[in-house]
Amino acid sequence: MAAKADEQAAERDDVDEIELGLLLEGVYRRYGFDFREYAPASLRRRVWRRAHAEGVSTISALQDRLLHDPACMERLLLDLSINVTAMFRDPTFYVAVREKVVPLLRTYPFTRIWVAGCSTGEEVYSLAILLLEEGVYERARIYATDINESVLDRARAGVFPLDKMREYTQNYIKAGGQRAFSEYYLAKYDGAQFQRSLVENVVFAQHNLVSDRSFNEFNVIVCRNVMIYFDRALQDRVHRLFYDSLAMFGVLALGAKESIRFSPFEDRYEDLDANERLYKKVS
Ligand SMILES: C[S@@+](CC[C@H](N)C(=O)[O-])C[C@H]1O[C@@H](n2cnc3c(N)ncnc32)[C@H](O)[C@@H]1O
C-alpha cells in the first residue's frame, strides 16, 4: 500500500517537472523572461503558489493562462523575483563600504556604480545617502537595474512605508549614518517621500542578468540577494558578466549569503572585506 503511494507520488513529481519545464520554456518564448536556470525547489514552490492563487489545479493550466494573459505573467513575475529589501539592510555592509570602498572612490575623478537587482530602490537610496555624506556623490553615477519594471517604478517614486522608518533609522545609525535620518524624507500620509536630490545621479533601467549584456564599465558593482535564486551554472554566467563589466581594481559587493568562492572567477579577485563579501578585481 505504502509502496503504491510512493509510486504515485514519484509519478506526480515527474509530471510536475515536465509541466514546469514546459511552462518556463513557454514563458521564455512568449515574454523573453528566462527562469530556466533558477534554483528549482523555490521556483516550483512559487509557481505552485501562483497556480493556487489563480484558482487552477495544474501547472499546465497555469501555463495556458500565462501564455494568453500578460497580466497573469506580471503577477508571476512578482512571485518569482521576490523583491524583499530594506534601507541599510545588513548595516555592517554599509560600514565596510564607508571604510573600504569610499577611499578607493576618492582616488577617481568620476565613478560608475551598478546596483544590479535593485528591487524597489531602498538599497539605492541608502547608497546615495552614504555617498552624499562621504562627499563623493557628486562625482558618482549609479545605474540601478532590475528585471521587473513595476519595482523600478516604485524605486523611481522613492516613497517607502512610513511604518518602516523606525527600523530604517536604526539601520542607518548602525551603518554609521552621520545626520538625523529624518532629514532625508518628508512624511506624507502613510509614506516617506525621499529627497529627489538623492536620485539626481541615478539612472533606473530594466536589465535582465540572465539574458542582457554588459552595458558599461563600472568601478563598483553591488548585487546582493539576487544570485541566491540562480542555479550554479547561471551564477557562473552572471559572475562572468560582472567580471567583464568591472574596471581593473573595481569592487564587487555581494550579499551576506553569497560569495565569489568556488566561482570560476575566484582567482581574479582578492578580499577587500571577506565578512562583508567585498571583493576587488585584481587580474
Ligand atoms: C531579494 S531582491 C534584492 C534587492 C536588493 N538587492 C537587496 O539586497 O535588498 C532580488 C531582486 O532581484 C531581481 N531579479 C531577479 N532575477 C533577476 C534577473 N534575472 N535580472 C535582474 N534582476 C533580477 C528581482 O526582481 C528582485 O527585485
What does this structure look like?
- With 283 residues, this protein is an alpha/beta fold.
- It has a seven-stranded mixed beta sheet. Strands 3-5-4 form a three-stranded antiparallel beta sheet.
- It contains nine helices and ten strands.
- It folds into two domains: 79 residues; 191 residues, Rossmann fold.
- Helices cover 45% and strands 19% of the residues.
- The protein binds S-adenosylmethionine (SAM).
- S-adenosylmethionine binds next to loops.
Structure characteristics:
283 residues; alpha/beta; Rossmann fold; 2 domains; 7-stranded mixed beta sheet; 3-stranded antiparallel beta sheet; 9 helices; 10 strands; globular; binds S-adenosylmethionine
Main beta sheet strand tally, sense and closure: 7 strands, mixed
Please bin the fraction of helical residues: 40-55%
Q: What order do the helices and strands follow? A: HHHHHEHEHEHEEEEHEEE
User: Which CATH top level class of the largest domain fits?
Assistant: Alpha Beta
Q: Could you tell me the number of beta strands? A: 10
Unreliable stretches: none
